[in-house]
Amino acid sequence: MNAIYDIDNNNMIITNVLTGVSYSCPAAFGDRYKAGEFSHDERLFFLHEGFYAKDIYELQNFYPIVTPYAIWNENCLVYFGKNDDIIKTEVSADLSFILSLCNGNISICEILDCCEIPKEKVYEFMNFCISSENQIIKLLSDKLGNRNIDNFFGGYTFSLASHNPVSKTDNDSYYRNLSEDNVERQFTDIETTISYMLRNRTSILHNKSYGECLFKILYNKMESEVNQNIGLSILEIGAGLGDVALSILDTAPSHRICDYTICDISASMLAAQRNKIGTVHNGIPVQYIHNNILNSPTTMLKRYDLIICNEVIADLPSITLKQCSNEVIRSKATSMNYLEGDYINIGAFELITRLWELLSSGGIAFVSEYSESDNIPQISRVMGDHQETSIDFRLLEDFANEIGFHSLSSSLMSFMEIEHDISVVSPHAFFLLQSVYGLNKGFIATQDLESINFLGYQNIKMVALSMFLRHFKTLLLQKT
Question: Which segments of 371-435 are extended strands (E)?
């Protein structure tokens, strides 16, 4: 049988790797355990406290619970291994049934009574699951009850990048040098944008895609300003893979749009967008401009009725407050408790000024990006290959009002009319399902999950969608 303890003689600690409980002890204590010299009373004491157990036979009164990082059906068990790699192993229907009973509230003894398979087979499978190599199951000395399962599992965390402090960030060359081979990977592997995660129709957006939902909301807000005989002239800045543009052009009645322009700093992105959308889509002409929107000559662009800048401004240049020469921004930032070393996304302010120049009278600009819980910008640790700086929407909104915009900041969830009680498949459960089905990255809501045939896989953990969206905000700007 597999031992389920870990002894650290140097620090005189014995740990039950199933329960996670540790106990300080003299070094000789570990030596006595190895020699099998525990007295009967000592074994009973440590067994009761959850510190010691020699094998599964001594754990019949414990309550097994399956890790959130495993899924299974009647044929297959899929889980994260010791090195965070995904492992698939065959299981029988009987063993799958055992896993379904391991909810932290049924003891091993009770599970044995429920099973019609030999106890030895149950013991063998349990030992496989509780081994330190697999950690599919942990044992609780008391019923789980109302306690949070996450408290019993250390969890598999996604690695975060470490960035050295810098006085300035600028991603201009990063995107200009992006190769065509890496365009798709930019969104599937490197960074996660909300618009990409919601690029397909989903119950989260009332059976609309992100672009479709966004255009409907924006059009309704400016319908009184629209010349119904001409339609809108739209500019999208930094269109990624073109999914938002494609959704808008696919679903909006052609009479509502007279032309659509995409301006992007990346030639590779523009090529992907052009391949996906074309130069005329649904009867609407589409133009592509390769340039940095902050530096584009006015002659290259015109006045637009609607400008979309979706999850772009974090990539714009940032400087520290100490370097900021704009006294209006400095004064407002200082009043909001900024320190001299805190970041100011100066490119975002330059963009707001640019939007004023590019919008027609009565036109609207939509800007979205992520923020911090305390609003003070930080360099994101999600991306390791380039530096994005979060946005303080308080500063941005004040600045927009100063130059004449009528502006309104809100959470992305509120703006897109997303309900707060929606749950989606957790990242780890998604990666497990992806390893089986080759899924494309995206949010899968509870309602959508019910319509997908995942061949009876159990233990698919759900988390609140708000966990991902809570820091994303929007700024709606109208040129009055």
Answer: 405-411, 423-425
- Assign 305 to helix, strand or coil: strand
Task: For the sheet with 70-72, list strands across it.
Answer: 70-72, 76-80, 86-90
Dihedral class, residue 133 (left if φ above 0, else alpha if ψ from -120 to 50, else beta): alpha
Alpha carbon distance, N-terminus to C-terminus of the chain? 76
Find where tokens 């946005």 sit: 391
Per residue in 239-291, pLDDT (tens digit) is 999 999 999 999 988 788 999 999 999 999 999 999 999 999 999 999 999 99
Token output for 450: 């019910």
The sheet carrying 284-290 orders its strands as 280-281, 284-290, 257-264, 232-237, 304-310, 359-370, 472-479, 405-411
Q: Which of 472, 365, 341 is nearest to 415 (CA)?
A: 472
User: Left (φ > 0), alpha (ψ -120 to 50) or beta: where does 103 sit?
Assistant: alpha
pTM: 0.84
Pairing of strands 13-16, 5-8: antiparallel
Q: Flag whether pLDDT at 435 surpasses 60.
A: yes
Highest mean pLDDT among 14-23, 147-156, 309-318, 445-454: 309-318
Question: In whole angstroms, what is the distance from residue 334 CA to residue 68 CA?
Answer: 44
pLDDT confidence of 40, banded at 50, 70, 90?
A: low
- The string of DSSP letters for 314-328 reads GGS-EEEGGG---HH
Maximum Cα–Cα distance across the chain: 92
Q: What pLDDT shows up at residue 54?
A: 43
Distance CA 201, CA 212 (A): 9
pLDDT of residue 160: 58
Q: Which domains does the chain have, with CATH numbers?
A: 5-145 (no CATH), 168-419+466-479 (3.40.50.150)
- The CB density around residue 427, as the number of other CB atoms within 10 Å, is 16
Q: Which two tokens stand for residue 439?
A: 């899924």
Residues 344/319, Cβ–Cβ less than 8 Å:
yes
* Own/partner pairs, 436-444, CB within 8 angstroms, 24+ separation: 436/76, 436/78, 436/88, 440/188, 441/187, 441/188, 441/192, 441/196, 441/197, 442/196, 442/197, 442/198, 442/199, 442/200, 442/202, 443/197, 443/198, 443/202, 443/204, 443/468
Please tell me the predicted confidence (pLDDT) of residue 20: 53
**Alpha helical stretches, state H, 345-421:** 346-358, 393-402, 412-415
Contact 329, 323 (CB under 8 A): no
| Cβ pair 475, 367 in contact under 8 A | yes
Average pLDDT over residues 128-154: 79
**CA 446 – CA 461 distance, rounded (Å):** 10
List the structure tokens of 62: 């414990």
pLDDT value, residue 302: 81
